[in-house]
Write a structure and sequence with these properties.
Two copies of one chain form a homodimer. The first copy, chain A, is of the alpha+beta class. The N and C termini of chain A lie far apart (48 Å). In chain A, strand 4 (76-84), helix 2 and strand 5 (116-121) form a beta-alpha-beta unit. Chain A is built from eleven helices and 15 strands. Chain A is globular, with a radius of gyration of 21 Å. In chain A, strands 1, 2, 3, 4, 5, 6, 7, 8 and 9 form a nine-stranded mixed β-sheet that branches. The longest helix of chain A has 23 residues, at 255-277. Chains A and B meet through helix 8, helix 9, strand 13 and helix 11 of A and helix 8, helix 9, strand 13 and helix 11 of B.
């Protein structure tokens, strides 16, 4: 696929898509006036819409309202509304608060409340201060623009940078644009779901095929990310597709669908890697690539087990080539593989080093290993002898700062 | 059951059992001469023997040799041999090294090599320095005594204190003694298996019923412990039963079996809690008690999910009553429960506080909560409305020291 891409912060991420505007303001949920806490994304026209949400049995009130809305409209929506600073999960009056925040925006924009995808992120169990959200809504609507950054910032919690990507490609001679924003950082181990990621495109695609593409894409991207093994109550990846690019609507599996899926994968993988890179307290992005697995599911599970291991993550923080921890994490993953035929290599910008062949330790240059693992992006390359399938998973190191951030999150 | 118990370090743990001796020496696997690294436990007579081992697909060479031996003898053994400082897993020549260390001890003691339970603990992937083990074996055998401490110390890795318990009870008018030692600390998330725990008793019980009791007991003790979610390649709980107490041999399920199981549970739960309390970098023991679950399996899985959550563990380190993290961990556990009827209370020596009722946050006194969570042993009490089953799980807080220890383990 010919894909022109950019990481969006200067050229626009979600607002790189024609017909979409976004805004992010400080309405007062957070005490710090410099931290935006309310975001809105608006399409000029009604869009095909799809969402993938957390598998956690405990689900936030706005997440449940979103699923109701999408069922009611048959997969159509015009807007995405999201606050940070409060998750509106296990909170007194949570459902009423979610309805009220949507109604305030719906009234201001003069569109039906069922046209909203809505979510919240932050601390669990405290009442959502919905009055300050309602009071801030006129300003939020007034600030809608093609600047992507305020909305990307307004959904951040302990993230240290906004995450935003866009790409442009062609379908049937028509230029199609896709862009997205995401937040991650803590309580991150999506499972058939995501952290918060909001994607927009002007591609013409039916709600059914949009949902299918989103599910396929989240499986290989956000679902392969783990920061701390905790799957949140509010995870959501939602997408709006306006159809204004003018391509023939995608209504089934075809070459156009594959093109669209490639572009969606590019955006979601880019955002997923940024989420791992910006995990709470993280100093490094860890990529574990498994090849030679008997099935994709085995490869996916093995790679995720490795990047989820606290011992692997701590060793990577310390630039310690203690590869026995990778072997151990493969072994308890629950996936099928031959434990006697495992090769392990570490690589980064600096170079590559083999540390284990056929499941037995190799002598290796500790100084070179330390230099490789001292970089900001590390690949753990594991080759099996069981088949032809491969997968990647994305994580980060475990650091003193993770403990500091989470030992005292609420204060 | 009338049970007289003691925590063994002064009165003897495993050596409190008549007919058992133990030794622990520094043979030279570790550089630090003050750290013992080789342990031996010897019974005067052949015993019924049983073991439960790791579910990790990658298993250490000595662990595999132990399973072969027990199969060969039909569940009989006289000795337990274990080194620390090297796991002999994924190591060049691992099987030969395991055989060689057993043969050295078998020759010295003049018993058959198949009478040995053997294991190793430490770093993965490096050749076991079996020559220093063989050279140290005469001294090891010479130092056999009724002092429990040297052996308990010799199996320690990053443990900060030796773990040892014993208990005395009666079966059919005969006094029976049971005692054990264990090590834990890191790479600890046993699953149908344990860290290293070695138990001895003079109870008369068949190998089959001994294996059954051990499996039942590890399920509610070590398998409900998690320090860091990493299930080791070397986990093992082994037991020797000499039969010299003179009770009628237990050969089936009966009142005597239940008495024995109660005593075994007491030893294993005591050691399991010590392992959690002494988790790498830990400052606190966390106990999560689930009641009102629909099945035992649900209760066990829910409690283990809570004490395994990095976010819960970090919050406990910070004495932060951020109970939404417990709700979240229940939700992603995979267990069945009604997420709308959850009550949560925290308790410790200082007092008790309710923070969530029917899945909604309660207003609570933050100062009292901080005081409760400031203690060294915290109970997270979660009540469901789904049935009559309960379970406990045991963990520890996640601290800066966990990261420090594991960021630089090999150096």
């Amino acid at each position: 696929m010919k894909l022109e891409s950019w990481s969006g912060l200067s050229k626009g991420g979600i607002t790189a898509v024609p017909g979409f505007k976004a805004a992010g303001i400080h309405c007062g949920i957070r005490k710090n006036r410099d931290k935006r806490d309310l975001a809105l994304i608006l399409a000029e026209t009604e869009c095909a819409a799809a969402a993938v949400v957390t598998t956690n049995k405990v689900k936030s009130a706005p997440l449940l309202l979103t699923m109701e809305n999408l069922a009611k409209t048959g997969g159509r929506a015009r807007a995405i509304l999201c606050n940070s600073g409060n998750a509106n999960a296990c909170a007194p009056g949570g459902t009423e608060a979610a309805v009220k925040m949507v109604n305030a925006a719906a009234n201001e924009l003069n569109i039906d409340p069922s046209q909203f995808i809505v979510n919240s992120t932050g601390v669990i169990g405290f009442p959502l201060p919905v009055d300050v959200i309602a009071a801030g809504t006129p300003e939020l609507v007034q600030k809608l623009s093609t600047d992507n950054i305020p909305a990307a910032e307004a959904i951040m919690t302990t993230d240290t940078f906004p995450k935003s990507y866009a790409a442009r490609f062609e379908i049937g001679g028509k230029t199609v644009t896709i862009g997205g924003i995401a937040k991650g950082s803590g309580m991150i181990n999506p499972n058939m779901a995501t952290m918060l990621a909001f994607i927009a495109t002007d591609c013409a695609i039916s709600p059914k095929m949009l949902q299918k593409a989103l599910r396929e894409s989240t499986k290989i991207s956000y679902n392969q990310v783990s920061v701390d093994g905790d799957t949140s109550t509010n995870d959501m990846c939602a997408i709006l597709a306006s159809g204004t690019a003018g391509n023939a609507e995608i209504t089934g599996e075809c070459a156009d669908y594959d093109e669209f899926l490639d572009a969606l994968n590019f955006i979601n993988l880019s955002l997923a890697k940024d989420i791992a890179r910006d995990g709470e307290g993280a100093t490094k992005l860890l990529i574990c690539r498994i090849s030679g697995a008997a099935t994709y599911e085995d490869a996916a599970r093995l790679s995720k087990s490795v990047i989820s291991s606290s011992l692997v993550k701590s060793a990577m923080f310390g630039a310690d080539a203690n590869w026995g921890r990778e072997m151990c994490a493969l072994g308890y993953s629950g996936a099928n593989f031959n434990p006697a035929t495992v090769d392990i290599r570490f690589s980064s910008y600096v170079g590559e080093i083999a540390v284990c062949r056929q499941s037995v330790g190799l002598p290796f240059d500790e100084d070179l290993a330390a230099a490789i693992l001292g970089e900001k992006e590390i690949t753990i390359e594991i080759t099996l002898a069981d088949g032809d399938f491969s997968a990647e998973a994305y994580g980060c190191d475990l650091t003193y700062d993770y403990v500091r951030i989470n030992g005292d999150y609420r204060t």
